[in-house]
């Protein structure tokens, strides 16, 4: 029913503003915002690749539209969302690197402050479950509260962001165009950001084409890597998106600088100590550095860690405990090269270069 | 858009209820006054009280979130207050926050009121209308910045342990985090004498919250054992359970 009302309201909106004059000038008055005439706002088609699972995001609650998406994109790249006016979401989430903070071990925030975790890639968020390395947000629509308000990130309050947007020359018009009526509200801001983010589907890698039976063939190394991946990695990095959405302790030595307790911060449960989200490996070749704190520079470093660097602790995932009492995976050097060849097939260049998501 | 929804919704509701025997069928309002108590006394911030563990405690700050208000008639039929408009922060320090006025309630005779303590995390944030509650919660300090969740209650002060002389700080922030730790509670209160609601009657009810029951309810909370209760899978659910039984209406 909501959808209908939505469509009706767009319709009413389109009809309703055909009588305005002023030749499309987006003049702003002190008392009211004039909506430019003839603004259409079409629903966008969220194309789900045939090899993908069903979305976790309830799209019917917030169907992306042209104007909603554009508004979300403008917000995403706008420093107004931070206290200093210069740190936007896009500052730490750079498209070419699958929306990560390339080369930064942990992310930077306002006034050069440095956070404690490595910015996660933004892709396939409509298919994700829990957000952030520790799952501190259960819903995508509420997730932006964290980076906007965190001191080491954007250090701003939602109320201030709204004030700035309400006072802006353009935002009130853009909000009205996106949602059919006037009003710059937090719900609309979060909805617009979600509309932008759920459209970010990375599903056209060589691996996807192979899964869909399109005309691609893996090289010998890629194919060998795929088999090793299936055998040794896919119990956690499961399925098309290479994650089972769980939180696990993969045996990283504690970094005393951060002493990050991981999932325990969210649940308060010692059983979740040092557990972090099993990340999707989509575009993994472009998202270095690796791990929640960005401690590894290369994929080879990551694989070397899994064979030689893991440390034991009470919450270490059982899958890393071997029958002989040792911990870690057994992967030969050749196998590591083959695995890396396979992991590179997960890169979707169409997504990384997609103009729809690009800042400029 | 919401307005249209509301209009359609309220029209539907208006048309569909005709079982009451009142002559005035115009929607009315109800004023809910929240009173924070210690037993039968009024809570006074900064004043010492004693809990059942013989700890002397002083509350300096008390805020909590109320949501999802529903009124029920004798026949079981319900009036669900528009969810997005039902969120409120009750702040002991701010008298206006302790008075929640519900408007445009269907006319009728009601004998039960139900409301939520906190924010129901099972509902999708758009559907539950909480996204527009974010700035209010944030300004009241009821939002965690590291987690996209709410503090359902923020109760802070100092305490002196039994036989102790020095006072220490206590902090109680109970909420829900992620999808696992859910401390949202639904509270149902029978209204002793039925409330008639229509446009001609100004109705008002007092809801008391007995703050002492945070410590002494079904579960005993001794601050000396733990005085900083925040993301706490053991004590936070106990406090939430205590709070669920700490409300009464008169």
Explained architecture:
The complex is a heterodimer of chains A (360) and B (250). With 360 residues, chain A is mostly helical. Chain A has 2 domains: 201 residues, Orthogonal Bundle (Cytochrome Bc1 Complex, Chain D, domain 2); 145 residues, Cytochrome Bc1 Complex, Chain D, domain 2, CATH 1.10.760.10. Chain A is 32% helix and 1% strand. Chain A contains 13 helices and 2 strands, in the order H-H-H-H-H-H-H-H-H-E-H-E-H-H-H. Chain A has a two-stranded antiparallel ribbon with strand order 1-2. Chain A is globular. The relative contact order of chain A is 0.14. By secondary structure, chain B is mainly beta. Chain B has one domain. In chain B, strands 3, 4, 5, 6, 8, 9, 10, 11 and 13 form a 9-stranded mixed β-sheet that branches. In chain B, strands 1, 2, 7, 12 and 14 form a 5-stranded mixed β-sheet that branches. The longest helix of chain B is centred in the N-terminal third of the chain and has 15 residues. Chain B starts with a helix and ends with a strand. In chain B, 39% of the residues are buried. At the A-B interface, helix 1, helix 4, helix 5, helix 7 and helix 10 of A face helix 1 and helix 2 of B.
Provide a concise account of the structure shown:
Chain B: InterPro entries: MbnP-like_dom. The complex is a heterodimer of chains A (360) and B (250). Chain A has 360 residues and is mainly alpha-helical.
